[in-house]
Design brief:
It comes from Sediminibacterium ginsengisoli. The chain is α/β, with parallel strands linked by helices. The chain has six helices and six strands, in the order αβαβαβαβαββα. It has one domain: Glutaredoxin. Helix 3 crosses helix 6.
Length: 161
């Protein structure tokens, strides 16, 4: 009987670990552009990397502040620009260690000269950067630098009003 209970507990533990592991999808820039262009909800796309200090510092307040807009169905997507060696395990482990809850995708692109202008003509490749899109009101705004928490709140209000 004890072996049966132990077996059930092990299965339950493995199942819960599997549920907690975040899937990091691989995307091309065309997929990210399509996501932005076709989203039916207000969308915040943040480009970041695990090795980027300003990126890592802003993600917690992005998650917290975007969560305040859940009634307006605002969605946050974190687009990782990490190196291929870090995909998917390194990015997933970093996200888990830092408690990230948002959707995370990995940009499977290496030529910033080609992918950056597809997001915004002014993007020079530096991160963090953020694109906010609300297709319902034809709102599209690109932020080419870190967004402090108070500025993020103001910009989210513009996104949904």
């Amino acid at each position: 009987m004890m072996k049966k209970i132990a077996g059930i507990l092990v299965l339950a533990l493995l199942f819960s670990i599997t549920l907690q592991a975040q899937e990091i999808r691989k995307m091309k820039i065309a997929d990210v552009v399509k996501m932005a262009d076709t989203s039916s909800v207000p969308l915040v796309i943040n480009f970041w990397a695990t090795w980027c200090g300003p990126c890592v510092r802003e993600i917690p307040w992005f998650e917290k502040t975007v969560a305040e807009f859940k009634d307006q169905k605002v969605r946050l997507v974190l687009v990782s620009l990490d190196f291929a060696d870090d995909y998917p395990k390194g990015i997933a482990a970093f996200a888990k260690k830092n408690g990230y809850k948002s959707d995370i995708v990995w940009l499977d692109e290496t030529n910033a000269d080609l992918f950056c202008p597809q997001i915004d003509k002014s993007w020079d490749g530096a991160i963090p950067v953020t694109l906010m899109v609300n297709n319902g009101k034809r709102y599209r705004q690109f932020f080419g630098q870190q967004l402090p928490e108070q500025r993020l709140l103001l910009e989210l209000k513009k996104l949904v009003e």
